[in-house]
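Lab notebook, bench 4. The sequencing result for the construct came back, and we need a structural model before the next group meeting so we can plan mutations. Quick request posted to the team channel:

Model the 3D structure of this chain.
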Amino acid sequence: MKRNSGFTLIELLVVLAVMGLMMGVVGFSLLSGGGAELGASQRSLMGVLQQARTKAASSGLNARVIVYGDPADADKFHRYFEVVLEDPNATRAEPRWIVLNEGTYLEEGIYFVPESTSASARPDDWPTDAFSAWSHDDSETFKLEDSFKGYRLEGQGTEFHFLEFDSGGNLVLPSISSGQLAVVPRIVLAKGAPNPIDPAVPLRFDSANAVGGILLHKFGGFSTLEITDFMAP
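Done. Here's the predicted structure in token form:
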């Protein structure tokens, strides 16, 4: 008697489960070497950026994604971000912003990489362009007071970095001097930690492979940045 050979349903399910697990592991390893936390932070930030762009275009008002920039609060510094909308009823003497969400944090151990090298310690093999570029230049200071009844007054309080979308939903580029090339804002994320060695340098990044981010396009859309998208030192 001949016996039919083949796989049972249980065997096929086991094989598929193992393949799915292996693909998941490979997928995490491809997220710029940063694992699940870095990938989750990229996805979370992408959603917030899209929310800000959509709100700006639908309301006809400028919207900003603001990133906490005061090193006095180590838990929020370069980890906390929220969306604010320009208040059309505010005066020039007292500009203010409408708070659109409660704010959120990047995943534990993930930080926005500061533009200035003086704000973070980085290894020698760190990519030369692996830093965040905002909608403002270094000389522009943006400070907001704590939220009160859904508004933040501008001019005093905590310093923030920001990415801005204008009333048409287009990305706002930083101001540049004559003859200079415009820098397209981008967000760079990396695994890091507070720096206990030197209080003047609040963050420390130890691995040049645990880097990723988001590249923004002026007239719409975003692209994820992986470690291979950055320039070698």
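The chain is about 20% helix and 25% strand.
Will bring this to the meeting.
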